[in-house]
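Thread: "does anyone have the structure for this chain?"

Original post by V.I.:
We have the sequence but no experimental structure in hand. Need at least a predicted one for the grant figures.
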Amino acid sequence: MSRRSAALFVAGVLLFTLALVAFWWWRREPQEETAQPTGRPFVERSVDASLVADLYFPGSGGRLYAESREVAAGGRIEEQISILINELLRGPEGISLYPPLPSGVEVAGVHLLADGIAYIDLTLPEDPGALSWGSKREILAVYSLVDSIVLNFSEVEAVILLWNGRQQPTFAGHLDTTRPLVANRALLAPGTP
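Reply from O.Q.:
Generated one for you, tokens below.
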């Protein structure tokens, strides 16, 4: 076999191999991709007209206490989360519990992304940096919101809190709110206060 014939033979084998690999790649089963933040809104889910939710309110001993409440539901999950937060901001029915945030705070918007991160935009008439809470009060306020959302909606894995449309480094100077926050079950009290 001449050098030229050998080179053509090797080139033919390489082309044949590349064609087989390309065909295999094209025909293979698509693999599931790991969830990556996409920025796309979460898909709606169908729900009943009401939802029984556990709202977590700050109480004695620096703990969060569950108060079950029937909350109107229906529509998009973002609307349901907004309704739940408004119930939380309305305050507890129990006398030994207190609202997580001062009066005047409102929900400006809720966005749930496909990666399970819920963005909660709260408005406060004055600058949120003016909240002069101690560290325990700040932790209870933040996790009252986070736990109430994450533990009632399986679609939500973590929460990012915004004040007046912007993510703040902290609410009152003690707790880092620059990252997505997951539920903190260690703050939940067993039973009632």
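V.I.: this helps a lot. The CA atoms of residues 35 and 190 lie 34 Å apart.
O.Q.: and The chain has one domain: 50-187.
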